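Researcher: Good morning. I'm working through a list of sequences from a screen, and I'd like to move beyond sequence-only analysis. For each chain I'm collecting a predicted structure so we can compare shapes side by side. This is the next one on the list. No need for commentary yet; just the structure.
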Amino acid sequence: MPKRTVVLVAWAFLFLAPFVPAKSKKTPPVDPRLLSAQFVRVVSATGSDINPRTYPEDREAVFAVQNALKKWGRFHVTYEGAAGEPDLIIVVRKGRYGSAVVSPNGPAEPGPVGRMPGQAGPFPVPTGGIRVGTEAGNAPDDMISIYDARLGTDSPPIWRKTMAHGLEDVQGRVPLPLVEELRKDVESAARAQASKP
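Model: Good morning. Structure tokens for this chain:
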């Protein structure tokens, strides 16, 4: 093959390569447990929404996600203490650089028995009071993580996304962006699964 032909073929390849259509980017498959689940429980990163250590913005996010899931209708939302166990645990966390919470430490209970100088007999030392908690971090984005309830939240999540303002609920009028992302992923995977022979 003449040298000129080789050079022309090489130049043609270099100039035409960018115009060759790329393979379509497929979204990663959704975990099948998301498709088969029926019952979910929504909690904050500190646990239940009734936990006094739960930050107020996380508590609001729990309620907003519960309402968004009910409107969607794909999952039945369960609550702590209700009969039956959920299939999935949905953990929500509002993004923040720092936060503080003040909560009761519980009722005064008899603690260790002590004796004060000048007093006769033992007396209980109260353990109640106020607890102040703070959190500092660099997680400004809202997050939803979904776990298999049988494995718990110590296992790897089966779905997780973060997004700035992803859990913003504008008086219930706007769907939560992170719940919408979940809905799109689940419904897309369900359509793909239904189209398979």
